[in-house]
Write a structure and sequence with these properties.
By secondary structure, the chain is of the alpha+beta class. It is built from five helices and six strands, in the order H-H-H-E-E-E-E-E-E-H-H. It is 31% helix and 15% strand. Bound molecules: iron/sulfur cluster.
Length: 137
């Protein structure tokens, strides 16, 4: 699956849950997206739930912002750097790079920023913050 496909599919799943939560306030919605609650109520939301594993080793992992508004990607490549194709970057310069002979990818495995409640509260409008993530549209 390409990242574009994943993002589109994830957007649909996220939207369907949000439609069930229209009577909750922002803090209640953020609480609802807590990893433990989501694993119980929406096991289909993430393949990691089935194995009780997490994308980041952190307490109180929140799944509201699976993906990150600072992430940029293009499945066809963003730019060429030192003869290698750059497929993804962080606009804040956070995280690390995963580099192979032909490709450079953003590696966010040590960055927990979008999974913290404070960050989510400050960037709650999912539609708005994710509109720039795709670099190919
Ligand atoms: S934030 Fe991590 S655990 Fe939660 S849905 Fe996304 S990948 Fe799965």
């Amino acid at each position: 699956m390409t990242y574009a496909n994943w993002l589109n599919t994830h957007f649909i799943k996220h939207k369907a849950i949000m439609e069930q939560l229209v009577y909750k306030n922002i803090d209640e919605i953020i609480e609802y997206f807590d990893y433990e609650n989501m694993r119980l109520k929406h096991p289909e939301f993430c393949p990691l739930y089935a194995t009780n594993s997490k994308c980041h080793y952190m307490k109180n992992l929140n799944c509201y912002m699976c993906g990150c508004p600072y992430f940029r990607f293009n499945d066809d490549g963003i730019e060429t750097k030192e003869n290698r194709m750059v497929y993804s970057i962080c606009t804040k310069g956070l995280g690390e790079l995963f580099e192979s002979e032909n490709a450079i990818h953003q590696d966010c495995s040590n960055c927990i920023l979008p999974h913290t409640k404070d960050f989510i509260r400050n960037h709650f409008n999912w539609n708005e913050i994710f509109c720039d993530v795709r670099n190919d549209v």
